[in-house]
Design brief:
With about 90 residues, the chain is mainly alpha-helical. The protein is built from 4 helices and no strands. The chain has a single domain, classed as Metal-sensitive repressor, helix protomer (Methane Monooxygenase Hydroxylase, Chain G, domain 1), CATH 1.20.58. The longest helix is centred in the middle third of the chain and has 31 residues.
């Protein structure tokens, strides 16, 4: 089973929230809201996209590359854990 199928409900929930955030940006632009307000809305969308991307890539690493929680080779396990941690920091 694919990790996207396993976590389908949660992932779809995140996508639906993103859709709502994008609609808020659209409404703000249509209403000619102040640029600071629009920038804050877009920044929120960016953060949500980064969170979704981080979750998908981390799950991909764990399912298709190596899961640091179950890998018996200590070097590979540590390498995967380091990669996941760097990814989390990068997408923050």
């Amino acid at each position: 089973m694919s990790h996207t199928t396993k976590n389908k409900a949660a992932l779809l929930g995140r996508v639906r929230r993103l859709k709502g955030q994008m609609e808020a940006v659209e409404r703000a632009l249509e209403a000619e809201a102040p640029c600071g307000e629009i920038l804050n809305l877009v920044a929120s969308v960016r953060g949500a996209i980064n969170g979704l991307m981080g979750e998908l890539v981390e799950d991909h690493i764990r399912m298709h590359v190596v899961d640091p929680d179950t890998e018996t080779d200590k070097v590979r396990s540590q390498g995967a854990a380091d990669l996941i941690e760097a990814l989390r920091k990068y997408l923050k």
